[in-house]
Structure formats: structure tokens, C-alpha cells
Design the sequence.
């Protein structure tokens, strides 16, 4: 007997870290991933689609939390779908993608349509059926973020100050002795070095800012590259009618990305606001022989045990504030990296849009699955829901015009 050609060709696309943090590491006595043979999801799906001849194959990629890696995987998926369609032109293609795999699937359609339009002069090629499960649809856009220049200045100011403090510690080993702080002229060499260093940093910043203005086109190119690598566009009605969006309530991945966005804007506001006060404290520390001398004398008048106490208070305050600013900036970078590691060092003018559904005209179906019982597992593992495989099967049957067997 001749082999029955599959009517439904199913490609599974996992999401970020879908094969674990170390995908090349050999696993022993571990349950299969949802896209591997023997997983409960595939068993349920095969049972539900038993009346339709089908073939299931996973499409593996690195799984890194990287915008460029996802775009690379999307290009490979587009080539795979094109080759598969050429080999089985009568079969229906189905892509089932989880998490960021949904972004890969839509980017693959974008690449396919772009390539087909250029090769076939706009002729419409058949689009595969697409099912996304728990996908946060991410796009990077340019934004006129007015606080970006202030944040750059404050962070550079704080980092330069900390570097200066380290250099001074290496030079002297410790701050000037106590007697030097009783006169604004007693620590002249120390103060002269601080003055020279401060103004050198100030002029360096002004030069960097001038260079930064010239770098604006470079930043714009970086933003354009990220925008192009995440561009999903508005899904046309023809493709939208062949898409099923499955999402879950309180999906941890979507909440994490939303938290990253909130943390970014909150910390950016804190740095821009507190940075003004921090700059004043650091400025006061740098000019202590003239500014802090009066504070020290007031301390002596009120009976402080040491005239250097006032100096130490402001010095420690400057150290702490500068360290806090650098720490907050590192948290800000981590918050942006939640959407992709490239965003941690990208220009702050990048605006990250995340939605549970893509922009589309007439989506075929959007389903929100709910767990009715408490289960100690992540809601992002939406493929573990009992209704997930059946929902996909019912929708596929409606698309291929057959009646599901029950």
C-alpha cells in the first residue's frame, strides 16, 4: 500500500528557554517538554485530531531571550514553511507556537509575505494556520523620551564621581587628616586635584554631549534595527482569519514583562528627579574646602567630638547617593532586558509595546483559558490546560471544514 500523505503538517515552536536554560545539556529522568514526543499535550492533541491525517514536527531554536535570535529563528521558520509547502502543496500547514514562539511565527509570516511579494509581484501565497499560546506580542518603537538626556548626565556624573573616589583612595589611601579639614586652605593639594578632576569631567561631559548629539543618527539606526527585528505589522484579514490566539488569566510571562515596563519608567523618573539632588550633594563634596568648612565650624560650635564629622557625613552621603544612582541604573537595564537582552544597552528612546493579541483585522478567534482548580504550576504553561488541545482541535476542524469526532 502506498503511504498516506499527511493532510495536516504541524510545526511546533517553543518559546524563550523552552528547552531549559542549558538546552545542550543531557536530561535524564525528566518529563518531556510540551513539544517532544510523549508529552501529555501532544498525546491529547493527537487524540483530538485522530480523524485528520497529520504529522507533527518540532522546530527547535536557541531559546535565548534575544530579539535578534528570535528574528533569526523566524527567518529559518519561513524557509522551512516554504520548503514544506513546495514538497506538499496540497497539505494544510499548521504552526503551534508558545510564548515568544508566537512572535517567531508572526515574524516568519512577515518574512514569507515580504519575500513572496518581491518574487511573485504581489501574488498571494497560501498562509499556514497559526495558533499562539500565551504569547506576549512585542514590538519596539521609537519614542521621544524627554528624560533620556537627564538620565545620561546623572548616571555619567555618578559613575565619574565613584571612579574619582577610587582614584583618590588609591592615591592617598585615605582622606586628608583631620587637621586639614579645619581650614578651607589646609587641604589645598587635595582640593586642587578635586577641582581639576571635576572640571575635567564637566568638560568631558559637554564634549560627550556634543558627540552624543552627533550620535543621534547612530542611535536612530539602532532603534530602527530593533523595530525591524520585532515588526509584526497589522495582520491582514486573510491571515487573521487563520489565526487562533490562546491566552491565560494572570499569565506570569505577561505579568513579568509588564512589571519590567513599570519598573523602567518608575526608576527612570526616580533617577531624573533624585539625580538633581545627588548632583548638588556631589558638587558640595567636591568643593568642600569652601562650602563644607562652614558646616564643620557649625559642628564644632555645637560640640561635635570631631571637626571631621561634618566632612564625613557629607562625604558618605555623596558616596551613598552616587552608588544608589548606579544601582538604580543597573536595575533599569535589567528591567528593559526582560523583553530582550539587546534592550538593556539600547537607546532609552526605545518604546516597548507588549500586548496579548497582535494588531489584526478580523482575528479568527481569541480564547482565554481559566483553571478552575488550584494547581501548583505556572499559568504560562498553558499547554498543560486540559482544554488547550481540544480548543486547538475544534478550531482546526472548523478551518479544514470537517466535523470533529466526539
Sequence:
Amino acid at each position: 500500500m502506498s503511504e498516506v500523505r499527511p493532510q495536516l503538517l504541524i510545526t511546533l515552536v517553543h518559546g524563550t528557554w523552552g528547552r531549559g536554560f542549558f538546552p545542550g545539556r543531557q536530561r535524564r529522568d525528566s518529563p518531556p517538554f510540551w513539544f517532544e514526543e510523549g508529552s501529555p499535550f501532544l498525546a491529547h492533541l493527537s487524540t483530538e485530531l485522530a480523524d485528520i491525517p497529520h504529522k507533527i514536527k518540532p522546530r527547535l531554536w536557541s531559546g535565548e531571550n534575544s530579539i535578534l535570535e528570535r528574528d533569526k529563528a523566524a527567518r529559518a521558520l519561513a524557509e522551512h514553511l516554504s520548503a514544506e509547502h513546495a514538497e506538499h502543496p496540497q497539505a494544510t500547514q499548521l504552526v503551534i507556537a508558545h510564548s515568544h514562539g508566537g512572535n517567531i511565527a508572526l515574524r516568519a509570516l512577515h518574512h514569507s509575505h515580504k519575500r513572496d511579494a518581491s518574487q511573485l509581484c504581489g501574488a498571494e501565497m497560501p498562509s499556514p494556520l497559526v495558533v499562539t499560546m500565551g504569547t506576549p506580542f512585542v514590538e519596539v518603537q521609537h519614542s521621544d523620551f524627554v528624560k533620556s538626556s537627564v538620565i545620561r548626565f546623572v548616571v555619567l556624573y555618578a559613575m565619574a564621581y565613584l571612579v574619582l573616589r577610587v582614584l583618590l583612595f588609591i592615591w592617598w589611601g585615605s582622606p586628608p587628616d583631620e587637621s586639614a579639614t579645619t581650614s578651607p586652605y589646609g587641604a589645598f593639594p587635595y582640593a586642587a586635584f578635586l577641582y581639576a578632576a571635576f572640571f575635567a569631567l564637566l568638560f568631558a561631559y559637554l564634549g560627550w554631549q556634543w558627540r552624543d548629539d552627533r550620535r543621534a543618527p547612530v542611535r536612530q539606526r539602532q532603534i530602527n534595527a530593533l523595530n525591524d527585528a520585532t515588526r509584526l505589522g497589522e495582520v491582514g484579514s486573510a491571515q487573521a482569519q487563520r489565526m487562533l490566539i490562546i491566552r491565560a488569566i494572570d499569565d506570569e510571562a505577561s505579568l513579568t514583562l509588564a512589571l519590567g515596563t513599570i519598573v523602567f519608567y518608575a526608576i527612570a523618573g526616580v533617577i531624573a528627579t533624585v539625580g538633581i539632588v545627588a548632583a548638588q550633594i556631589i558638587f558640595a563634596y567636591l568643593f568642600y574646602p569652601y562650602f563644607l568648612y562652614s558646616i564643620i565650624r557649625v559642628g564644632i560650635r555645637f560640640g561635635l567630638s570631631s571637626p571631621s564629622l561634618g566632612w564625613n557625613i557629607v562625604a558618605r552621603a555623596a558616596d551613598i547617593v552616587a552608588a544608589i544612582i548606579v544601582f538604580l541604573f543597573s536595575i533599569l537595564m535589567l528591567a528593559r532586558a526582560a523583553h530582550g537582552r539587546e534592550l538593556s544597552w539600547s537607546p532609552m528612546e526605545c518604546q516597548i509595546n507588549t500586548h496579548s493579541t497582535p494588531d489584526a483585522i478580523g482575528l479568527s478567534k481569541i480564547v482565554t483559558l481559566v483553571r478552575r482548580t488550584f494547581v501548583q504550576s505556572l499559568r504560562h504553561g498553558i499547554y498543560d490546560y486540559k482544554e488547550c488541545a481540544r480548543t486547538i482541535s475544534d478550531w482546526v476542524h472548523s478551518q479544514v471544514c470537517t466535523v470533529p469526532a466526539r
